[in-house]
């Protein structure tokens, strides 16, 4: 175990001050902006979030506007960020805040934790960044830093929370400490090829220069799924789409009717879309017949959210030009 003191924390804070990335959410303490950025950054790379961050606030400038928006509007605004459950949580939380907190994001940690989609780590980030509280963050990057720092690769979450709490209290700079730990894990102390030679805490890290590439660990099993996508198009009426169920893959998004195939077809798929644990093989079945499944006609796709995989299917299939016709 490493005994941290305020003095021992200074090298990391100094490194962050000099080398941190200039990101827009680091220029505000507004709770709404910090909250949205934290949700967007969950399991999504910074480079993907950056062009979407400002656009979001132009459409939903405050919590009240987000709460009043329809779920379809919110999902459309989220299009391309993936993990749409997060958008549903944002929408539900905004409505909760409008109803229970007069549209003002709550200051108290316990009230934050009651909001849909906000757990202890996200609440810790928002609370520390906005109110400079000693509430640690324990995302994947911070977990990796703590495990390596203390040379305890098998440490469980309970142990890591204790270490994270001890460290942030020793830092005496709560918001900066959380930012620095997250930045260190996202850059120098990455899963692949950590840069121990330039790490500001290498002198006290028990794993310095001994870390192996963690990407060599056993990969998650990817399940192959075969879907027939039934595309009904009409020159006058547009495109027939159905809304996906509230749970499962692409929950709540609009797609052409989809049928799961029990066996892999002999033909090549029109598009293969990779999710975290599934590989979707999409086969387009174009029909001019009247649809006999639930759904509705759309002449434009501007106001509804379609999965990225369906957008790619439309663009790739040689017989389709739906992106230009209907968007």
Estimated structural class: alpha+beta
Radius of gyration: 23 Å
Broad CATH class of the largest domain:
Mainly Alpha
**Assembly level:** single chain
Helix segment count?
13
Strand content: 5-15%
For the sheet with most strands, the description reads: 7 strands, mixed
SSE topology string: HHHHHHHHHHHEEEEEEEHH
> Are there runs of 5+ residues with pLDDT below 50, and where?
323-327
Distance between the amino and carboxyl termini: 57 Å
What is the CATH architecture annotation of the largest domain?
Orthogonal Bundle
Please state the overall shape, judged from the principal axes of the Cα atoms: globular
Question: How many distinct domains?
Answer: 2
Count the strands?
Answer: 7
Q: In which range does the helix fraction lie?
A: 40-55%
Q: Under CATH, the topology of the largest domain is which?
A: Endonuclease III, domain 1
Mean pLDDT: 92
Give the full name of the CATH homologous superfamily of the largest domain.
Hypothetical protein, domain 2
Account of the 3D structure:
The longest helix is centred in the N-terminal third of the chain and has 16 residues, at 85-100. The protein has 13 helices and seven strands. Strands 1, 2, 3, 4, 5, 6 and 7 form a seven-stranded mixed β-sheet that branches. The chain has helices at 6-19, 31-40, 46-59, 63-68, 71-78, 85-100, 109-113, 120-131, 140-149, 157-171, 174-186, 308-316, 322-326, and strands at 223-234, 238-243, 254-255, 258-260, 271-274, 278-287, 296-298. The protein is globular, with a radius of gyration of 23 Å. It is α+β, with helices and mostly antiparallel strands. The N and C termini lie far apart (57 Å). The chain has two domains: 6-215, Orthogonal Bundle (Endonuclease III, domain 1), CATH 1.10.340; 223-326, Nucleoside Triphosphate Pyrophosphohydrolase.
């Amino acid at each position: 175990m490493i005994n941290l003191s305020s003095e021992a924390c200074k090298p990391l804070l100094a490194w962050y001050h000099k080398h941190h990335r200039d990101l827009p959410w680091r220029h505000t303490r507004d709770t709404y902006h910090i909250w949205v950025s934290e949700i967007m950054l969950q399991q999504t790379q910074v480079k993907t979030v950056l062009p979407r961050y400002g656009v979001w606030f132009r459409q939903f400038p405050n919590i009240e506007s987000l709460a009043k928006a329809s779920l379809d509007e919110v999902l459309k605004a989220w299009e391309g960020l993936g993990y749409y459950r997060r958008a549903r949580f944002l929408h539900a939380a905004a409505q909760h805040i409008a109803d229970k907190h007069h549209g003002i994001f709550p200051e108290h940690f316990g009230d934050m934790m009651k909001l849909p989609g906000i757990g202890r780590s996200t609440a810790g980030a928002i609370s520390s960044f906005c109110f400079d509280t000693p509430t640690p963050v324990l995302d994947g990057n911070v977990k990796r830093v703590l495990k390596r720092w203390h040379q305890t690769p098998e440490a469980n979450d309970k142990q890591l929370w204790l270490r994270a709490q001890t460290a942030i209290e020793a830092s005496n700079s709560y918001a900066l400490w959380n930012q620095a730990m997250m930045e260190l894990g996202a850059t120098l102390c990455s899963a692949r090829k950590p840069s121990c030679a330039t790490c500001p805490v290498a002198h006290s890290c028990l794993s310095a220069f001994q870390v192996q590439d963690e990407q060599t660990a056993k990969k998650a099993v990817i399940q192959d799924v075969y879907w027939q996508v039934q595309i009904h198009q009409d020159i006058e009426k547009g495109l027939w789409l159905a809304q996906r169920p509230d749970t499962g893959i692409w929950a709540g998004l609009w797609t052409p009717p989809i049928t799961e195939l029990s066996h892999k077809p002999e033909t090549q798929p029109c598009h293969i879309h990779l999710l975290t644990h599934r590989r979707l093989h999409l086969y387009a079945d174009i029909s001019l017949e009247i649809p006999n499944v639930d759904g509705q006609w759309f002449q434009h796709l501007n106001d509804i959210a379609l999965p990225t995989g369906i957008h790619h299917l439309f663009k790739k299939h040689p017989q389709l030009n739906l992106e230009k016709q209907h968007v």
